[in-house]
């Protein structure tokens, strides 16, 4: 029967690296080898035939399990798996502001995908916020971070920055806590500033047309 005699160990690499996997098998008659890929989401597909599997400039989407299958039609195939983990910098997939009345509870949400898992920091303007100080609580759950205001005051309204970072890099997103009367778009960002920008641009254009 076919038997896998040697196979690459599990590997962790940075996005953009080249990965070479090896799977050697013995048997009479000679064993044939194929590789299959299994994604973390359950998708699987055939990759290639032969002892060697080369992944050039690997992306985070190629992270997952690579299955080596050795067979020679004598008995059941021998199957072994190599786990490939791809490190990549954070990207923020969700940044949600909220409209909250004074005296009520408000929550700003920030979600970031990253390997290794991202650490989060929150800022208002240039001032970093810390858990338990100034009436706010920072709750981190997996890839999500929430900035919780237990008793919103007028001074709490404004622009906040969520920073997500790991050993591969960092990114940030702007999130707004606004009052119930503020005009806001679907992403929770106050639109009043945007309207002011349009008005300012219109004034400049009118001035130019006079010349």
Automatic annotation (TrEMBL):
Domain Ig-like: 1-87, 89-176
GO BP of this protein: cell adhesion
Source organism superkingdom: Eukaryota
Main localisation: membrane
SMART domains, per the entry: IG, IGc2
Keywords per UniProt: Cell membrane, Disulfide bond, Glycoprotein, Lipoprotein, Membrane, Repeat, Signal
Subcellular locations according to the entry: Cell membrane
PANTHER family given in the database record: IGLON FAMILY OF IMMUNOGLOBULIN SUPERFAMILY-RELATED, NEUROTRIMIN
Family stated for the protein in its record: Belongs to the immunoglobulin superfamily. IgLON family.
Protein name: Ig-like domain-containing protein
Lineage: Eukaryota, Metazoa, Chordata, Craniata, Vertebrata
């Amino acid at each position: 029967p076919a038997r896998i005699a040697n196979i690459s160990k599990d590997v962790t690499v940075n996005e953009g690296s080249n990965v070479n996997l090896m799977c050697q098998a013995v048997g009479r008659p000679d064993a044939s080898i194929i590789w299959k890929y299994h994604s973390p989401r359950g998708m699987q597909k055939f990759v290639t035939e032969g002892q060697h599997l080369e992944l050039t400039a690997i992306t985070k989407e190629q992270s997952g399990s690579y299955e080596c299958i050795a067979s020679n039609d004598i008995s059941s195939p021998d199957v072994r798996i190599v786990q490939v983990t791809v490190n990549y910098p954070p990207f923020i997939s969700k940044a949600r502001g909220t409209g909250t009345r004074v005296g009520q509870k408000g929550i700003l949400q920030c979600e970031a995908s990253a390997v290794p898992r991202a650490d989060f920091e929150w800022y208002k303007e240039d001032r970093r916020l810390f858990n338990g100080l100034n009436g706010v609580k920072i709750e981190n759950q997996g890839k999500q971070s929430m900035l919780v205001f237990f008793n919103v005051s007028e001074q709490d309204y404004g622009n906040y920055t969520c920073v997500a970072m790991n050993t591969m890099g960092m990114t940030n997103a702007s999130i707004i806590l606004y009052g119930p009367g503020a005009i806001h778009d679907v992403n929770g960002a106050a639109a009043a500033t945007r309207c002011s920008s349009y008005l300012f641009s219109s004034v400049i254009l009118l001035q130019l047309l006079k010349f």
